[in-house]
Amino acid sequence: MDVTRWMFPTEEEEIAEVLSLARRIVSTGWDSGWASDKDGNQVEEWQDEAVNFNLLAAFLKVDDVIDGRIDYVVQSKATEQVFDIIRNEMGSEELNVYDWQTDPNRTKEDVLGVLDKALQNMKVDSNGHQP
Fold first, then answer.
1. Which residue range forms the structural domain that includes residue 75?
2. What does residue 94 show for φ and ψ, rounded to 5 degrees?
3. Quick check: is 15 in a domain?
């Protein structure tokens, strides 16, 4: 067993973990606005009452989940991978990701699909593990 690998994950493994956690957060509860409580009232993603998150709020919630264990640069790279996929699908470098997320036709499945594609590009499953 390679203990150093377990103790010191690679940047790629950390990016996969961030993507996997964001996916888990969205799959547990999605909101097309920002974040909401169990009754659908809008709240901030950091509030304990928040149980539903849009894509951007989910990435911010990941920071709460990992409690600063993963560097912000790594979190930024994970987020940028997802944003690149959205930009490519929309065919625009000028895409406003917030507008994409809050499009009234956007679905939870769309958001999960983008996260899945980012994980597939890294050759890991939705739990961040290599098959």
1. 9-121
2. -95, 10
3. yes
Dist CA 15 CA 70 (whole Å): 9
Torsion of Cα atoms, 121 then 102 then 29 then 115, to 10°: 0
Q: What is the pLDDT along the chain (131 residues), one digit of tens a residue?
A: 455 555 678 888 899 999 999 999 999 999 988 999 999 999 999 999 999 999 999 999 998 888 777 888 888 999 999 999 998 887 766 667 778 888 889 999 999 999 999 999 887 655 555 55
Query: Would you state the structure tokens that stand for residue 101, as one six-digit string?
Result: 């997320």
Model confidence, pTM: 0.84
Total domains in the fold of the chain: 1
* 42 is a domain residue: yes
Q: Are 98 and 106 in contact (CB under 8 A)?
A: no
